[in-house]
Amino acid sequence: MGHRLLTRGLVLAVALLFVQPVAAHSGSIHASTPHWAFLLLILGGGVVMGGSAFLGQRVWSDHPTRTLSGVLIGLGVALLGTIAIIQIQIEPVGTTPSLHAWYPPLAVVITGLLTTGSLLLGVWQWPTRPEYSALGFALGIWVGYPALMPNSGYRNPLGYLLVVVVPLLAGYILWRDVWPLIRSDVIDGISGRVGGLVAAMFGVFFLFSAGLFTVNPEQGVNGPTSAFVTTASFANPLVVWPAVEFYLPSLPLAGAMSVGTALLIGTLVGLIGLNASMMTSVWQRSLELPSSGGVLGGLATTGATACCCCGPAVYAVASVFFGVSASPLYWAFIDPASPLGALFFAAAVILLVWSAKRFAAQLADTDACSVQPTHGDE
């Protein structure tokens, strides 16, 4: 019975995300539904998640699948509301703000702090685990790459190397610290399904929130008139990548995806799904969740901003409160010279890897498994 309830909850949560694009394109939303209505949907999803967690501790302690289903449905509702706001966001006004001149030096300063801090912290805290310092150093270079390279380094081999090395370093760390636990079956079927669903939900969320997919394509003189699939080149992330662009008016759905963006989103989605699976395993064992677990959703949403190429999700939400006055926030992320989006991405990767490592350490300290991960401070 519990497994059937969880399965139904998973199906409903996924359906909420995939039904949204059709609803968001309907005339009622564009014509009469105010933006704050979708903000209430986001808040409602948060209430459902919090309420499910509360009931799981007080009422449903013997029915964990009910709690998991409620949390997942609440997450789906919250992501649905966010996507809807993004699809009908207020168009920003103006151009790149006057702060543009400060972006390159700010990027260089942030890069210096991240790279130096990573090296010093590695020597002091993890002298036997150089991959930790390497990941921080690579992410630091990522933040300052456009400012440090001639012509923003759009075709420099170093840019391609960075985009490949960062996921490899994160994967290597997880392979050493987390894979022994996964191999020992600490992630059971329920935890695996929860992680897979959360990853899928955030994957859909990233595609729409980053502006890669839209159900509200450009109309008018410059808009497409018939279905098409074509190749293109996008200078994001960091360098120029081959991409596919498409438009399907019958759905309606338009979108684009480059090789680099797919790798970037795949990295974030994989980290989020892994954290969700491990968090579920910790919760099933009635262990106290690390403080990092409580902010997993916040860390994950930064990925949408980090992946942005058309308009960050944070601007869509801010515009609900401030209208076009929030336009400078939009341009602060869109400007290729701005380090803000890259900094969000670096923070998301570091914190999600750290969170997974903490979950692994906590699970390894229990009697649930006999295989211990390799801790960096040993």
TrEMBL record:
Signal peptide: none annotated. This is Uncharacterized protein. Keywords: Membrane, Transmembrane, Transmembrane helix. The keyword Membrane applies. The chain crosses the membrane at residues 36-56, 68-90, 102-122, 134-152, 158-175, 196-215, 251-274, 295-318, 330-354.
